Amino acid sequence: MTRAERAAERAQRLKADLAAATRQLAQLEAQQRTTDRAKRAKRHQRIGRMADDAGLFVWQDATLAGLFQVLARLQDTPDPVKVLDGLLAEAPVPG
Q1: Do residues 10 and 32 share a domain?
Q2: SS (H, E, C) 57-87
Q3: Which of 10, 14, 37, 59 has an alpha carbon within 20 to 30 A of 65's alpha carbon?
Q4: What is the pLDDT of residue 95?
Q5: Same domain, 73 and 91
Q6: Are 88 and 94 in contact (CB under 8 A)?
Q7: Phi first, then psi: what are they for 79, rounded to 5°?
């Protein structure tokens, strides 16, 4: 076998190894996406149940969407529950 033939075989093996590694990586990433989707779906269900248990489903979807947009602004706050509680304690209650 000539040097060129050995080099060609080695290149072919390396390409096959690379293709196998690429397939394995794609499978691993697909499994991770599936796991992440399952976790997210479970969390959506749990949060929805919490909202229902708290009686928030009496509000219309548009009202809930607006409230969640306002809550999202507290995302970077160190203690969002304390901040929101303080704001609500200071706010006048209508009626």
Answers
A1: yes
A2: HHCCHHHHHHHHHHHHCCCCCCCHHHHHHHH
A3: 37
A4: 64
A5: yes
A6: no
A7: -130, 80
Q: Burial of 60 by CB count in 10 Å (0-12 exposed, 13-18 middle, 19+ buried)?
A: exposed
Contact 27, 34 (CB under 8 A): no
Same domain, 28 and 53: yes
Query: Domain range spanning residue 69?
Result: 59-95
Amino acid code (one letter) for 47: I
Tens of pLDDT, residue by residue over 1-47, are 899 999 999 999 999 999 999 999 999 999 999 999 999 999 999 99
What single-letter amino acid sits at 34? T
| Total structural domains within the chain | 2
